Amino acid sequence: MGQYIGIGRKARRCYGFDEIALAPGRITVNPAEVDTTWKIDGEKFKVPILAAAMDGVVDVKFAIAMGKLGGIAVLNLEGVQTRYEDPDEVLDQLVKADPARATEIIQSIYTKPIKEKLIEKRIRQIKEAKVPAVVSAIPQRAEKFGKIAQDAGADIFVVQSTVSTVKHISKEYKALDIKKFCKSMKIPVIVGNCVSYEVALELMGTGASAILVGIGPGAACTTRGVLGIGIPQVTATIDCAAARDAFYKKTKRYIPIITDGGMRIGGDICKAFACGSDAVMVGSAFARAIEAPGRGYHWGMATPHANLPRGTRIHVGTTGTLEEILFGPARFDDGSQNLMGALETSMGSVGARDIKEFQKTEIIIAPSIQTEGKIFQRVQRVGMGK
């Protein structure tokens, strides 16, 4: 498999969202009658689009708003919300920073210690609104923060790092035993991120309730540039979906996969589901919401790294309410709003009545899909030309 790129070295061709398209079906379905729900550990959610655990996207207010709309927003337990009693003052400083000094300021802001009492406080604030409280931490802090979060009433815990594997080697610190951790937790645990069949299969074997798929595709992430690693999301999703299906065939346990990052607009989200995803996680699309704490700015989770930042701060603007971004009515012509409407319409157009049927959609390689016949849009910078 693959082609030679030099003497004795082969490389596999992989694909991203802009290189494929979905073929219409032989039948069509009324978009108002399709089922977009997804499940994790038997819990059903109406909106299969999760808001990423990024400080410019999710705070307590955003998590509550997302929950009331039927979705999930993940709160980062290592961000400004758990370091500062009043994070608004810090966020103001961060978004007003000169671009040349933005990374330096972000790094300094994240040197303040995380307060365990704030972890408990933020989770309880979300739960008081009677919506799901979903939180995340890196593997090195998962055991400690997982117990705190669980005791505070969290509904789902996410263990998230740039690259997650079952076998992690370190002499400097004790690696997290993911299998032991998942077994010890009384709430569902989502683990990520990965991009390959083998790793996804191993992570599913730990007892994780869902797997995050994606390394470096996010709008504010620079991992692919800094480290040179990553696999385009179409190929990564298809490979991990194959692992999910193989794992189910062997164990009869269905572990959802969540494509995380790289989706700017409704079309990208639809393609992720057609490639096999059960749900998707996005950041930049929600960073544009009025409710987002970033005030129109968005920055990567790894930006605060003291020695090797792998994220940047970008300006995405504020375009509308969270409800408009999820359900419309869309006020823009570029696919960045009414994401659920786009999903439902795409499902109807290919004849899929639910997500499982949508995962069987015919996919074609179509690198011209973004440009064919769109010269006026590109010249005038409207619609698909933005």
Question: What would you say this structure looks like, in words?
Answer:
Helix 2 (87-95) packs antiparallel against helix 3 (102-109), helix 4 packs across helix 5 (139-152) and helix 7 crosses helix 9 (233-251). The protein is an alpha/beta fold and 386 residues long. 34% of the residues lie in helices and 16% in strands. The two termini are 37 Å apart. The model has no long low-confidence stretch (mean pLDDT 91). The protein has helices at residues 60-68, 87-95, 102-109, 116-128, 139-152, 178-184, 197-204, 223-226, 233-251, 266-274, 284-287, 322-327, 339-350, 355-358, 375-380; strands at residues 3-6, 9-11, 20-22, 38-40, 43-45, 49-51, 72-76, 134-137, 156-160, 189-194, 210-213, 257-260, 279-282, 297-299, 313-315, 363-365. The strands form five sheets. An eight-stranded parallel barrel has the order 6-7-8-9-10-11-12-13, surrounded by five helices. Strands 1-2 form a two-stranded antiparallel ribbon. The protein has a single domain (3-385), classed as Aldolase class I (TIM Barrel).
Kindly list the characteristics that best describe this protein.
alpha/beta, 386 residues, TIM Barrel, two-stranded antiparallel sheet
Task: Characterize the main sheet.
Answer: 8 strands, parallel, barrel
Biggest sheet strand order reads 6-7-8-9-10-11-12-13
Beta-strand level of the residues, as a percent range? 15-25%
- The number of helical runs is 15
In short:
With 386 residues, the chain is α/β, with parallel strands linked by helices.
Describe the secondary structure blueprint for this structure.
Layout lengths: L2 E4 L2 E3 L8 E3 L15 E3 L2 E3 L3 E3 L8 H9 L3 E5 L10 H9 L6 H8 L6 H13 L5 E4 L1 H14 L3 E5 L17 H7 L4 E6 L2 H8 L5 E4 L9 H4 L6 H19 L5 E4 L5 H9 L4 E4 L1 H4 L9 E3 L13 E3 L6 H6 L11 H12 L4 H4 L4 E3 L9 H6 L6
Parallel strand pairs: 6-7, 6-13, 7-8, 8-9, 9-10, 10-11, 11-12, 12-13
Antiparallel strand pairs: 1-2, 3-16, 4-5, 14-15
